[in-house]
């Protein structure tokens, strides 16, 4: 496995300055944002596509700093019920696929998307319980009429361009846990797999190791991010928390830098599980820690993960 970083952390810096900095910190591979909600601070597909000189410039920068690109990421909602949003995110997605092909990048990361509750919706609707029956009917409609047809088509598009999709399970979208991830992968074909982020599993009460062992070789990319659960607030309000991420004191949970939600042994088990299922790709640091600066969170994550990746053996481990 290679230690990586989601380069959007350093979006205030030029591509070259960001690459130079992370290389000195021991990073081996980078994930670069190309659109969607995250934006395209370092690579704008519309400016690079079909531009051999720009493609060559990017490749030389990577070579100069001894880095590779683990994935291009356009986290968006191409199934958004607002046509303007859906069209923009779909355009970002399709251009990112084409750019990945030109750059020789194997993987494109995105969310599964989330439709509304009907053809007349204006905003996405994420259902969290089966009753009243309206909710179950909404979920069935979303999957059968929107999600499955869309991802079956996208699976063919990815195959045509020799690139893989890594869909990130995330609450608020139709793929948010192991079960929904496996359902999408089965429908979309081998070109569609998962970008696994343990932080999204932790706050839902899931076990990332169990999920990794279930998903197995459908994990195509990995985000290194942690979650801290606050027992007192969680005991009162549960994990379905809509308060601002900035309101850390009142929330039931919050995203943290790796090691600040769960300790070394938990993260060693996660890395061992990844190795058990044959994953040898990027461990891409993502920073969304409201209690640390980007600089502090990044450098602490690098040190924490370097120790784990170095000390973990390459042998297989099995869980009952």
TrEMBL record:
Transmembrane segments: none annotated. Pfam families: AP_endonuc_2. Gene3D superfamilies: Divalent-metal-dependent TIM barrel enzymes. Residues 20-307 form the Xylose isomerase-like TIM barrel domain. Keywords: Isomerase. GO terms for molecular function: isomerase activity. PANTHER family: HYDROXYPYRUVATE ISOMERASE, XYLOSE ISOMERASE-LIKE TIM BARREL DOMAIN-CONTAINING PROTEIN. This is Sugar phosphate isomerase/epimerase. It comes from Paenibacillus gyeongsangnamensis.
């Amino acid at each position: 496995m290679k230690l990586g970083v989601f380069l959007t952390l350093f979006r205030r810096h030029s591509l070259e300055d960001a690459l130079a900095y992370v290389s000195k910190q021991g990073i081996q591979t980078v994930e670069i944002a190309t659109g969607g909600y995250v934006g395209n601070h370092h690579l704008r597909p519309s400016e690079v596509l079909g531009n051999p000189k720009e493609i060559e410039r990017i490749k030389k920068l990577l070579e100069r700093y001894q880095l590779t690109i683990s994935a291009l990421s356009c986290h968006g909602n191409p199934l958004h019920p607002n046509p303007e949003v859906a069209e923009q995110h779909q355009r970002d997605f399709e251009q990112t696929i084409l750019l990945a092909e030109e750059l020789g990048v194997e993987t494109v990361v995105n969310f599964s998307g989330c439709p509304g509750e009907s053809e007349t919706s204006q905003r996405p609707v994420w259902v969290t319980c089966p009753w009243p029956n309206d909710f179950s009917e909404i979920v069935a409609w979303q999957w059968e009429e929107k999600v499955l047809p869309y991802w079956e088509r996208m699976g063919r598009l990815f195959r045509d361009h020799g690139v893989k999709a890594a869909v990130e399970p995330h609450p608020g979208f139709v793929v948010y846990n192991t079960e929904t991830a496996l359902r999408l992968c089965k429908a979309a074909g081998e070109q569609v797999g998962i970008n696994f982020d343990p932080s999204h599993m932790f706050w839902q009460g899931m076990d990332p190791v169990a999920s990794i062992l279930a998903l197995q070789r459908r994990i195509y990319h990995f985000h290194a991010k942690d979650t801290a659960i606050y027992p007192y607030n969680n005991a009162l309000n549960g994990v379905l928390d809509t308060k601002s991420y900035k309101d850390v004191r009142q929330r039931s949970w919050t995203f943290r830098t790796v090691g600040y939600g769960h300790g070394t042994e938990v993260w060693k088990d996660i890395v061992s599980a990844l190795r058990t299922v044959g994953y040898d790709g990027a461990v891409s640091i993502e920073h969304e820690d409201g209690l640390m600066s980007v600089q502090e969170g990044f450098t602490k994550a690098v040190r924490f993960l370097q120790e784990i990746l170095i000390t973990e053996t390459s042998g297989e481990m099995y869980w009952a």
